[in-house]
Amino acid sequence: MKKTALSMLAVTVATLMSQVHAEKAFDLNGQTLTGDWNGTRTELADKGIKFDANIATDGSYLADGGYDPKGSPTFAMQALVGTTLDMGKLVGWSGTTFRMAVTARQGESTTLRGIQDPAAPQFANSQANYGRGNTGTRLSEFYIDKHFDSGLGIRVGRMGLGTEFNVMACDFQGNAFCAAQMGKWQGKLWYNTPVSQWGARVKYQLNPELFGQVGVFEYNPDNALEGKGWNLGTKNADGVNVLSEIVWSPEKAFNNLPGSYRFGVLYNTADDPKNQYDVAYKAGTVGEDRSYGGWITFEQQLTSTGTGRRGLHSFGNFTFHDRTTTQVDNSQQLGLKYIGLFDSHPNDIIGFAVNRVHVNNRYRDIKPLLNENAEYNMELNYSYYPAKWFMLRPLLQYVIHPGATNKVDNALVIGLGSKIIF
């Protein structure tokens, strides 16, 4: 299946991109680098076939401090190719869509090479596009979604937990401020994209501003392994993740401006000691049969220029975790971003955020090197959009107590990220 799917995607994208008309590609006013494929892209979309592709790169350099500040800059990259099919237009299945996406990650990490002591790994990572498989490709999305007129929605297939629950924007390079935070601090159980797992999510739209959802997903540690990006079997599955969430998205909240507020919980039923164990003891020696966690997430626009999303926005993410089974027992994240500071660049974003990762005292008791109770991460960046399909992001990061130890110097990181949408 892997080779067939990749071949179909590659042939389709290559064929369509070969039809790009010179005048329409690289249009700074366009939505994508490759343009409308001489009209073919719009024609296909009208028939229910959409394609998307992008490449994101995180560049990071340890300028001062850390464990080994003598290294060179590192770069981590993720490429994605996907398709979304409107099954109503294609075969008459009203309210039904099919989604498939393949990703590939390559690169190195400044966190691993310079910031952290290998005996006290940094809890965050300077580059969000690093990790969860550095070779080959992954089937990151493969699901069918059905919406009913009653407000009920059902999604079944393979997906990442963070694309369904604890969802938040990713306008920063460090993973302490990018995507679902539950996958950072309880990542032994919660796999964000690019990792996918079998599951189902049921969503009910109570009104235009409020919905609730419940999901059940397999927990299979094989899915996160390198070389297992196309693992469709459940041979080593160990229980399930059960998630529930309430999402309120008022159009007129603070200052009569829109916002989004999420409240959710996680319950995991794994019971193999190598997967679920008491962190106060050597890994795998004292097994447990459950774990839990929860989150409160918000994004709220604070001011507006009167045009679209331009203005000041706030965001935050607060998580708590089972102290028996999790190294991190709570985390807090707060940030601000201003969209469209300059009239000539309405899509640019300047952002600043602070994150605190509190380490479980029960875990620290068996790790003498972890002599601080928390790690702190900060990032200041400017996302420059010369076109909607091209982004450059210069940034500064500062890490206090990397790995929750004062035996490693605080770290200053200089970075440059980029993204191209095809």
Automatic annotation (TrEMBL):
Name of the protein in its database record: Porin B
UniProt xrefs under Gene3D superfamilies: Carbohydrate-selective porin OprB
Organism of derivation: Acinetobacter stercoris
Keyword Signal carried by entry: yes
Coiled coil ranges: none
PANTHER family: PORIN B
One GO-annotated biological process of the protein: carbohydrate transport
Pfam families xrefs: OprB (PF04966)
One function term, GO molecular function aspect: porin activity
Superkingdom of origin: Bacteria
Entry keyword set: Signal
Assigned protein family: Belongs to the OprB family.
A cellular component annotation (GO) from this entry: membrane
Signal sequence annotation: 1-22
Keyword Metal-binding: no
